[in-house]
TrEMBL record:
<keyword id="KW-1003">Cell membrane</keyword>
<feature type="transmembrane region" description="Helical">
    <location>
        <begin position="9"/>
        <end position="27"/>
    </location>
</feature>
<feature type="domain" description="ABC transmembrane type-1">
    <location>
        <begin position="100"/>
        <end position="313"/>
    </location>
</feature>
<keyword id="KW-1133">Transmembrane helix</keyword>
<feature type="transmembrane region" description="Helical">
    <location>
        <begin position="104"/>
        <end position="127"/>
    </location>
</feature>
<feature type="transmembrane region" description="Helical">
    <location>
        <begin position="139"/>
        <end position="160"/>
    </location>
</feature>
<dbReference type="GO" id="GO:0005886">
    <property type="term" value="C:plasma membrane"/>
</dbReference>
<protein>
    <submittedName>
        <fullName>Glutathione transport system permease protein GsiC</fullName>
    </submittedName>
</protein>
<dbReference type="InterPro" id="IPR035906">
    <property type="entry name" value="MetI-like_sf"/>
</dbReference>
<feature type="transmembrane region" description="Helical">
    <location>
        <begin position="249"/>
        <end position="274"/>
    </location>
</feature>
<dbReference type="Pfam" id="PF19300">
    <property type="entry name" value="BPD_transp_1_N"/>
</dbReference>
<comment type="similarity">
    <text>Belongs to the binding-protein-dependent transport system permease family.</text>
</comment>
<feature type="transmembrane region" description="Helical">
    <location>
        <begin position="294"/>
        <end position="320"/>
    </location>
</feature>
<keyword id="KW-0813">Transport</keyword>
<keyword id="KW-0472">Membrane</keyword>
<dbReference type="InterPro" id="IPR045621">
    <property type="entry name" value="BPD_transp_1_N"/>
</dbReference>
<feature type="transmembrane region" description="Helical">
    <location>
        <begin position="190"/>
        <end position="209"/>
    </location>
</feature>
Length: 327
């Protein structure tokens, strides 16, 4: 297994180089640059001389050709320096660190809810296959899976916030009163703001995982060892929980590794709609402001998480299924 992991790490390093090289080339060749984005925000009547513009380009490190700039970025990365955000005026690592917690609040809550609800729903669906309640649940899950999350977000905002006034419309905290609240009050305030984003994050995953477990359970139930257990007089609940479901866990456990990038990736559209200060919102702002160091820092982090998630999924697959040999 060690040699397999070393090979995967070397392949992952090569993949990272290719990803960062392509993304760096793309963003440096997009229309506009950090200076033009900054200048668009200032007084239109203010004229910047060509000499001043060149001086500003040099101060931003934009005076070099992009291949040379990429080599310089890699050199700084090897020394542990991701650079300084051009729009936030802070180190990239600091900016990313400030936005990790809000995204984790949504993603971890959503992931736990999805697993806690989807496993019993999938089991019930497999046991009650063909019955009216199973058909109703299946149709409802299909409808949820096909319903776009951003549309659901707008509906929730209109009904729960604008019409009923039950939940805050957007943001992570109530700006006017948050600092005056005690710890419990602050936690409740964040929870009330996070409720609608968590619902939108969760229902699609819930539908997918439930259908996934249901389909795998139906396949496992038809296996010979399950028929043998039935012939021996094993009870239905014991067959489902101790024989069928344990084998269904194999592909389910490997999916945990694949969810790793999503934990920090955030959802750009949902965080934008709810004005949630997470990683998705940060990525969107970095693109619109052409903040090259921040874009590269976020791209590198997401690429590492994706590769690590795939490696973790492969290792988990070998751990839970003895038939798999990684080498």
């Amino acid at each position: 297994m060690v040699s397999y992991i070393i090979r995967r790490l070397l392949l992952g390093a090569l993949t990272l180089v290719l990803i960062t090289f392509i993304i760096f080339a793309l963003i440096r060749n997009m229309p506009g640059d950090p200076l033009t984005m900054d200048l668009s925000m200032v007084d239109p009547s203010k004229v910047i001389s060509p000499l001043e513009y060149e001086r500003m380009k040099k101060s931003y490190g934009l005076d070099k050709p992009w291949p040379q700039a990429y080599v310089q970025w890699v050199g700084n990365l090897v020394q542990g320096d991701l650079g300084r955000s051009l729009s936030w005026k802070k180190p990239v690592t600091t900016v990313i660190g400030e936005h990790v917690a809000p995204t984790l609040i949504l993603s971890i809550s959503s992931l736990l809810l999805a697993y806690m609800l989807s496993i019993p729903m999938g089991l019930v669906g497999a046991v009650r296959i063909g019955k009216m309640d199973e058909r109703v649940m299946s149709i409802s899950l299909y409808m949820l899976y096909s319903f776009p999350a951003f549309v659901a977000a707008l509906f929730l905002q209109i009904y729960l916030s604008v019409k009923l006034g039950w939940l805050p419309l957007y943001g992570m905290t109530t700006t006017e009163t948050y600092d005056t609240l005690d710890t419990f009050g602050k936690a409740k305030d964040i929870m009330m703001h996070a409720l609608m984003p968590i619902i939108c994050y969760t229902y699609g995953s819930l539908a997918y995982y439930s259908r996934f477990i249901n389909a795998n359970m139906q396949e496992v139930i038809r296996q010979d060892y399950v028929r043998t257990a039935k012939a021996k007089g094993v009870g239905p609940s014991s067959i489902v929980l101790h024989h069928a479901f344990r084998n269904t866990l194999i592909p389910l456990v490997t999916m945990i590794g694949m969810t790793l990038p999503g934990l920090l990736g955030g959802a750009v559209i949902l965080e934008r709609i709810f004005q949630w200060p997470g990683m998705g919102q940060l990525y969107f702002l970095s693109l619109t402001s052409r903040d090259y160091p921040l874009i590269m820092g976020l791209t590198l982090m997401f690429a590492i998480l994706t590769l690590a998630g795939q490696l973790l999924a492969d290792i988990l697959y070998a751990v839970v299924d003895p038939r798999i040999r990684l080498n």
